[in-house]
Amino acid sequence: MSTTTIRLLDNYIAGSWTPARAATGELDVVNPASGEALARVPLSGQADLDAAVAAARAALAEWRAVSTIARARKLFELRERLVARSEDLARSVTREMGKTIGDARAEVARMIEMVEAACAIPTTMQGRILEDVSRGIDAETLRQPVGVCAAIVPFNFPAMVPFWFLPFAIACGNTFVLKPSEQVPLTQQIAFEELDALGLPAGTVNLVNGGREVVEAILDHREIDAVSFVGSAPVARLVYERAAKAGKRVQALGGAKNHMVVMPDAVIDKTVDGIVGSAFGAAGQRCMAGSVVIAVGDAHEQLLGPLVEASRRLRLGDGLDERSDVGPVISCAARDRISDWIERGVTAGAELLLDGRGAGAGELDPAGAFLGPTILDRVGPEMAIAQEEVFGPVLCVIRAHSLDQAIEIINAGRFGNGTSIFTESGASVRRYRHDVQVGMVGVNIGVAAPVAFFPFSGWKDSFLGDLHAHGPDAVEFFTRKKTVTSRFFSDGQGSGSYFVER
Length: 502
Ligand code: NAD
Hints:
Layout: E1 11-13, E2 16-18, E3 26-30, E4 37-42, H1 46-65, H2 68-84, H3 86-97, H4 101-118, H5 121-124, E5 128-134, E6 137-145, E7 148-152, H6 166-171, E8 175-179, H7 186-196, E9 205-207, H8 212-220, E10 226-230, H9 233-245, E11 249-253, E12 258-262, H10 268-280, E13 290-296, H11 299-313, H12 332-347, E14 351-354, E15 374-377, H13 384-387, E16 394-400, H14 403-412, E17 415-416, E18 418-422, H15 426-435, E19 440-443, E20 459-460, E21 463-464, H16 472-477, E22 479-486
Parallel strand pairs: 7-8, 7-10, 8-9, 10-11, 12-13, 12-18, 13-16, 15-16, 18-19
Antiparallel strand pairs: 1-2, 3-4, 5-6, 6-22, 11-21, 14-15, 17-20
Helix pairs in contact: 2-4, 3-4, 3-7, 10-11
The protein binds nicotinamide-adenine-dinucleotide.
The site of nicotinamide-adenine-dinucleotide has 30 residues, from helix 8 and helix 9.
């Protein structure tokens, strides 16, 4: 019998690590490579959220009064602290989520980049002024914090996605409540240890662990002013509608089905590298994962052989093993759901070129949630597997006779997160960029997730709202504008009529 006690995670509220006082239950946090329970996460209740929101509300005036430059300096310090902990953060990501350690290091680097972008706040938060909008009268627009902001985040980027919001929100003078994914709450415990060490006013940042109950309480909470959500499309819609109904500012990033178009003139070896990384990196569990290849004209003739070979060579294993190319999916339940999708694709008439079901059997931990790279050819655009998000290491191949047809297939879908085109033709790229109804486009790049200084700009069912995550949109989302029109009489210049004398 094991004598190890499993840690029950605390929340972080008002500057202290605090046990959940109103938890309605607990869940195991499981390493998907081994089935080992790493910790237990409380499903916090309304009173826990209320305590966090009250702390955030109480901290608002003090944090806002810290000068913009001093807030930026706190973020510089946070950056240094996260860099020093980056290997701990990456190992935590791999342990709780499963992606390979290389992938996890890249995620942590992108997380830190978000902090770097937020350090620019003394520049990016500046307003505008126009002198003499009427004789002796000036108009200026200032940016002020929105108030208490909350974020609800998914399992697939335990380090990075919370940081699409947190650094920008606090840089702008807001206070913040984070609800991590209950499947991967450990990495943010490390991030909050470093936030704690900054000595921010108590309540500036808060962490409330939990699931659906906390989410619903956030959406209805009268003292929360803005909500950022990242997760699946049905929950994104629910969050968007309910938060908007409660009068909040809201941005909700949903699911995806990303296509990669391969033109006959593509440079095949580089294209194969791009497709393999995009389809099977993080075991296909990225919202920017390429899950459908559209091979145009005779592109499939040169592409499919090398693509299947390169995918077959990928080594499946524990993400902490530096030799692994593909880690497990998030859970055994997810593995079984993805396996069902493969069966449905075959039943619908697709041809299985590579079958990852049962891969690693006899070599890998049988309690791990392993599923190898899978490729289905001759997939019809009307098939459910071509339209719905599978969120696993499954790549569909559709054959199209022209770029126009490829664009039509993509535009007919309900998602519009990311897409890539592989070609050396400037004219094809120009056409594609102009006509494709997708918010993030890669040209000869498989995963075109924008860097922190640009917005993460999905469209259609992949995004509900108007201001996107990070980049300049983050400053827009986390500030509200105030326009001041002013004049003074003592200098003799402001005495005309504001409306008439222009
Ligand atoms: P999910 O929707 O199941 O969970 C996301 C968050 O919502 C979690 O914090 C969870 O606790 C909460 N939640 C889940 N069900 C809920 C419900 N019924 N009511 C209220 N709250 C609920 O998503 P996931 O499985 O954790 O993450 C994977 C999904 O996230 C994929 O669809 C992926 O495409 C998407 N995603 C999108 C982006 C993007 O930028 N568009 C980025 C990352 C992930």
